[in-house]
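## retry 2 of 3
previous attempt timed out at serialization; input unchanged, resubmitting
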Amino acid sequence: NDQAINTAGSHLNIVQVYDPATDTWDLATDYPKDVMYLGSATVGDQIVVAGGFNYNYSPSRYIPDTYIGSVTDGTLSWSKALDYPIGSIIYPCGVGVGDKAYFTGGRPSTDGNAPATGWSFMFDPTTRDWTMIEKKPTPIQDAKLGTDGNVLIAAGGEPADLTATNVTEIFDPTADPFAGVGVDKNPIIPTISKPATAATAVALAIKNR
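## retry succeeded, writing output
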């Protein structure tokens, strides 16, 4: 919708919308949960938000909740969707490609500090279904997931040992988006293990397609 939506953080449910055309921020409808460490992806005029954490929640401070934010006539509204497929999660990274949202990594847990994961999923805002896709080769949390409009580019973050990494990996949804289900084929291509620009990552992704 030509606007950016910033959701929650630090146990807040505040939602702010940025309009590049006017260079202004406005408050929107509050997020249903007071959480931080959540993941999000924008698909058209919808935003998909998953997971989160709140010190005061019980019995678990981690949550599996997924909500869809939709903008109609300039008003943002939230609706509950199916929970994140592997349950409670923090620090998943997400991005929208075409008419689907993609999420990978994060730290799954109900209590304590589980290691980062490489489990990856596609979410369809139309059917509101989650589909497992190929696992990310490097388990990661708090990474940055971007796109050139065709491929997913996951960069940086914290792997299972919680040390920072510069690994960048690329996933092509058109190669085989369901390859993670009982198939050995791995459409995620580890391309870079040294610092590199996003432009370099995109160029390598296109070259390998």
